[in-house]
Amino acid sequence: MLKIDNLTAEVDGKPILKGLALEVGAGEVHAIMGPNGAGKSTLSYVLGGRPGYEVTGGSVKLAGVDLLELEPHERASLGLFLGFQYPVEIPGVSFVQFLREAVNAQRKARGEEAYSGGEFLKVAKEKAGLLRLDMDMLKRPVNVGFSGGEKKRAEMVQMGILDPKFAVLDETDSGLDIDALRVVGQGINEIMREPGKGVLLITHYQRLLEYVQPDKVHVLADGRIVKSGGPELAQRLEDEGYEAVTA
Amino acid sequence: MSEVATVPTTRDEDWRYADGDYLAAAGAEALARWRTIEVAPGETERNCEVRLSGPEASGFVDRLRVHVGKGGRYEHFATIAAGRYARIEIEVTLDEGAHFEFGGVTLGGGDKRQEFVTRTIHAAPNCTSNQVVRAVHWGRSVGNFLGRIEIPQHSQKVDAAQNFRAILLEKGASANAKPELEIFADDVKAAHGAAIGALDDRAAFYMASRGIPPEVARKLLVRAFVADAFDSVEDDATRDDLVERTLAQLDEAAV
Ligand SMILES: Nc1ncnc2c1ncn2[C@@H]1O[C@H](COP(=O)(O)OP(=O)(O)OP(=O)(O)O)[C@@H](O)[C@H]1O
Ligand SMILES: [Mg+2]
């Protein structure tokens, strides 16, 4: 469903991704682990089309469509969702307003009818409930004054509302307390565990993978996938560290 | 702000960012004209204006002199998205316990030059003022805020705040802030801040990543930005109307 071939990308003229290849099949969850600065967030931004992240070679296809040809908002309408490692605060714009614009822009782009105010609120309530996020928080400006963990839960509420085909979740688990981790894990399964969907889960810890069991685990180091394996690889990495496992 | 009948030029401090050609064409007499407003003690007066004009219009200079009696309140909220050179100038004298509330937005593209000039004279103790100005510019347009705050020695316990922020949507646009504080009393609060920057590109990408097209994202961000200037408009409908009419001018921006 997501197919990345020999992808190279640079930021400010500095090569970060150096020939990355990865394929995630429909209905699968893959985990990416790797040392700090390896290029994991860069990969997520490149997939999302963030300005300043320049692709210098290779290809990315999502459901057969060339992702790199599309503008960031078009990628979202195609069904790509990015869960941010550092969700962005937007003062003066409420979550409700933000998400209603987002979901209706996507629906419009796909030729679907826009949600009415009532329909939108019903979906928003349901997803906020799923992630145990107080609906009142969605009346506040986007991420402003949210705690680290609340921001991450709010990311998952957004994912629930937008109902993407493919999600790249960048350290969604970091900053979550033990209970929140379980809630978020269950939320990811509920929203994304479907035959036609796929997930790329970027994480440093094995813990989230106990709730969201990956079909494959990859190690990203110095801009490439240097090792891939089954779920047991995550445990080995946690026990032995990157250097020993990838040596 | 002298009233001698000579044409001001950009060499004059108070007109330093003005359009010299406009001033010369307008002539000394027209530029020396002031409207006056007298707010009686304990009364409140409010003015809201959204000043627009077609691209051909040369613009305007509006000068307003306000006196606010003891415990009175004068509020002025204005958007300038008008001709080539447009200036709203307000000189306010505050008696004891009086308040001046000002919210202004300049917005424009092309060669437009828009400015607010205020002079707030805190003529007695315990008077207060709050001014919030936001500027949104593109093309080669310019937004200015010249704000002079005067607090003479006998005016203790004065609280005067001034805040200016500008967003430049394109490289050629610019903004100028010129706060001027003449404070001779010692027990006063006077806060002022100014910041000039571009639209928050992290927020823009976050919005895009959720499927919001760039022009919609820009509008949401600019709306939130200009709304600051009208935050203290008490009536919701009036405030929304000001924001929406201001924002409507953004649509002409082909950024
Ligand atoms: N704007 C930039 N200019 C220069 N280098 C950058 C820029 N942005 C990122 N980098 C570099 O790119 C490399 C990869 O960063 P990235 O954020 O993708 O790492 P990561 O794998 O997500 O790390 P972490 O586990 O700490 O989140 C780092 O060395 C980082 O310093
Ligand atoms: Mg990262």
UniProtKB/TrEMBL annotation, chain A:
Query: By its UniProt entry, which Gene3D superfamilies does this protein fall under?
Result: P-loop containing nucleotide triphosphate hydrolases (3.40.50.300)
PROSITE patterns attached to this UniProt entry? ABC_TRANSPORTER_2 (PS50893)
Q: Where in the numbering of this chain does the ABC transporter domain appear?
A: 2-247
- PANTHER family in alphabetical order: ABC TRANSPORTER I FAMILY MEMBER 6, CHLOROPLASTIC (PTHR43204)
Task: Identify the species of origin.
Answer: Novosphingobium marinum
Which InterPro entries does this entry report, sorted A to Z?
Answer: ABC_transporter-like_ATP-bd (IPR003439), FeS-cluster_ATPase_SufC (IPR010230), P-loop_NTPase (IPR027417)
Q: Recite the UniProt keywords alphabetically.
A: ATP-binding, Nucleotide-binding
Give the similarity note.
Belongs to the ABC transporter superfamily. Ycf16 family.
Cite a single Pfam family from the UniProt record. Answer: ABC_tran
> Which Gene Ontology MF annotations are present?
ATP binding; ATP hydrolysis activity
Q: What is this protein called?
A: Fe-S cluster assembly ATP-binding protein
UniProtKB/TrEMBL annotation, chain B:
- Every copy of the SUF system FeS cluster assembly SufBD core domain together lies at 62-225
Q: Name one GO biological process term.
A: iron-sulfur cluster assembly
Q: What InterPro entries does the database record attribute to this sequence?
A: Fe-S_cluster_assembly_SufBD, SUF_FeS_clus_asmbl_SufBD_core, SUF_FeS_clus_asmbl_SufBD_sf
Under PANTHER family, the record lists: PROTEIN ABCI7, CHLOROPLASTIC (PTHR43575)
> What name has this protein been given in UniProt?
Fe-S cluster assembly protein SufD
**Organism, per UniProt?**
Novosphingobium marinum
Origin organism lineage: Bacteria, Pseudomonadati, Pseudomonadota, Alphaproteobacteria, Sphingomonadales
